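User: I'm curious whether this sequence folds into something compact or stays loose and floppy. Could you predict its structure so I can see for myself?
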Amino acid sequence: MDNSTKKLLEECSVGCKMGIESMEQVQHHVTDAGIAGVIEKYCSKHKELEAEVSKMLLRAGQPEKEPGVMVSTFSWMTTGVKMMTGEDENKQAVKIIMNGCNMGIQSITEALHQCKDASAESISAAKKLIRMEENLRDDMQKYL
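Assistant: Here's the prediction. I'll summarize afterward.
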């Protein structure tokens, strides 16, 4: 597996895992059935894509890359603090998810631009993740 493909798949894997982690963090605070349904739907989609990307990495003999401990810890702390601000928890959860989507879109788009020589399969996975993040963000907007 060439370096561009490896890097792009690793970014996709980490992006999926961070999305899953973020959705699972806020899910416990959500009381609105509509928001909960959207989160559940996209959490499942992220898990499916992460499994696909993981298989691609394993086929190439590459271990999965985990999100950094500091990034995960900061994410948990930030979510906890934001959920305690006194603002409606449902609205806070929507904002957290939307911000995460925007960060994911930026991160994967940047990786795509840096990894122009990556395999078609890895580019397809990255574009799928970007579309998924855009759709999740758009589906969340109506709950603001």
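Summary: Helices lie at 3-27, 33-59, 69-83, 89-114, 120-141. The chain is about 80% helix and 0% strand.
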